[in-house]
Amino acid sequence: MISIDKAVDRTVNSLLSLVIPVYQEGNHIKSSIGIIENVLIENNIVYEFIIVDDGSLDNTWSELRSLANGNDRIMIIRLSRNFGKESALCAGLKYANGDMVLVMDGDLQHPPELIPKMVDAWLNEGYDVVEGIKHSRGKENRIYRACAKFFYYLIYKSSDINLGRASDFKLLDRKVVEAWKELPERATFFRGMSAWLGFERKEIGFDVAHRVNGKTKWSLVRLIRLAINAITSYTSVPLHCITLFGIIMFLGAVVLGVQTLFMKLSGRASDGFTTVILLLLIIGSAIMTSLGIIGIYLTKIYKEVKARPRYLISDFIRGGDDKC
To answer: Domain map of the chain by residue range?
Structure first.
């Protein structure tokens, strides 16, 4: 049973934990954190950073060590390899101690100037979840944009939850974080899971800013893999589609059977070689597609049964420690 009785007193001195997963962002991470920190200081927000290096192969970790040196408001975590953004978020949420927790990217595409407004909605308006909603998706490849729309369309139709303009830019109350941490699945989809939790929420629109440096690390293949993982983690509708395939094929077989008997009994039957080939191709494709969908879900069950951890930590440094 999930406990949600983790209510906290909402005061101006409440602690804000900023969870930021990073991957291969050594060339700008120090300046990006500096910009975010200046916004927090200017608005008198009590804060801490939990920055998770998701197995970067560049100089990201050394830059984070330098950033944390002498700054006790920064905690840095290094995963043993690249587990993916979802796992990095899990690690950050586990170690966040704030009365409210803000999840955002480290490339400034989530605008830091929106943070005070999100904190105010939590502090003075009483919302448990404050979501950053995209006015636009910024400059994206047309193929990626089309795939993203199709993906969110499937999520919406299968769950009645509209994630079309949603983002990972969210502020969560402590009780929401505690409830989220109770969800046991290994394959996580943060946007979907946080929406599933419910609670009082407010949406704040923003325009996706230009990336501060470099190119996105999300290739089309990785995005497709993420989409498949998200859909199968969040809904069982694809499994029900197999039943629908079966019903359609059965109805088609009944109609074709009646037509074939009629042609036979009326003496107008033909060889029907083309029809047989088409039927074999259609049935074979339907069977292989169904087996593929079942295989994906079996794989997820297999991974859940093994109960391996979502991530492994190779290094952990709290800002100001001598190890920095």
So the answer is: 15-140+165-215+309-318, 237-306
